[in-house]
Amino acid sequence: MFTGIVQAIGTIERVAPFAGGVKLTVHAPELEMGDVSLGDSISHNGACMTVVEQLDPHRYLIDVSDESLRCTVGLDVEGGRVNLEKAMRLGDMLGGHLVSGHVDGVGDVLSFDSVGENRELVVRAPKAMAKYLAAKGSVVVNGVSLTTNSVRDVEDGCVFSINLIPHTLAVTTLGQLAAGAQVNLEIDLIARYVERMLSTEHR
Q1: Residues 6+ apart with CB under 8 A from 151
Q2: Which residue intervals of 76-188 are DSSP H helices?
Q3: Residue 192: its H or E element
Q4: How far is residue 15's CA from residue 82's CA, in Å, rounded to a whole number?
Q5: Which is nearest to 107 in space by CA: 136, 168, 148?
Q6: What is the pLDDT of residues 64-83, one digit of tens each?
Q7: Phi and psi at residue 171, in whole multiples of 5°?
Q8: Residue 120 — φ and ψ, nearest 5°?
Q9: Distance (Å, whole) CA 85 – CA 12
Q10: Which residues contact 185 (CB under 8 A, 6 or more apart)?
Q11: What confidence tens digit (pLDDT) does each residue in 27-53 have?
């Protein structure tokens, strides 16, 4: 489990294909790695991945399956920057919201405009995710826990907007976004369970 509060930005230094996926070398000089062991989970742009080898205090390897590559964006580009968060521990402060690290879909950035010192991010989410998104609700964008300002349904999904403050832009990769980019999305866990309960109560 994660909180959606990014702890550091890492760089994908190398992408090495293997049968069934790719092995990534991640350079994370600002991520505290003293408590990370082999097999531990780290969120990369919202996707939970397992550390399979530590190369030095600031570099480690993860394996990304073809299935994970199919369901996400941004995990197979050498030189790409990724938002990083280590798995939370019981007792940690929950600064964002409960996040599983399982990407539910890929969204399309429609606009990313300045609003004073802030930026308004507008994203179109896939139709399958539309029922889980609500105004003033929680959503994860590239591993960052955010609150939606508005949500409106469209024919091929739904469009939601988010206000990003300067601090969020400075400590995550979201400031690099532009219209036409794609982002990893995860819906709120509570919405997922509510949908499940409502779908089964009249069976």
Answers
A1: 133, 134, 135, 137, 158, 159, 160
A2: 166-171
A3: helix 189-200
A4: 14
A5: 148
A6: 999 999 999 999 999 999 99
A7: -105, 5
A8: -100, 120
A9: 15
A10: 46, 103, 104, 105, 106, 107, 123, 125, 129, 139, 140, 141
A11: 999 999 989 999 999 999 999 999 999
- In one-letter notation, the amino acid at residue 96 is G
Cα–Cα distance measured from residue 150 to residue 78, given in angstroms and rounded to the nearest whole number: 34
> Which amino acid type is present at position 137?
G
Closest CA to 95 of 164, 6, 3, 190: 3
- Give residue 36's Cα distance to chain centre: 20
**Residue 143: partners with Cβ closer than 8 Å, 6 or more residues away:** 2, 4, 6, 43, 44, 45, 46, 47, 82, 83, 84, 85, 99, 172, 184
What span, in angstroms and rounded, lies between the C-alpha atoms of 103 and 118? 26
pLDDT tens track for 89-131: 776 666 667 789 999 999 999 999 999 999 999 999 999 999 9
Q: Return d(Cα 45, Cα 33) in angstroms, integer.
A: 18
Q: Please, are residues 104 and 131 in contact by the beta-carbon 8 Å criterion?
A: no
Q: What is the DSSP letter of 99?
A: B
Strand partners, 93: none
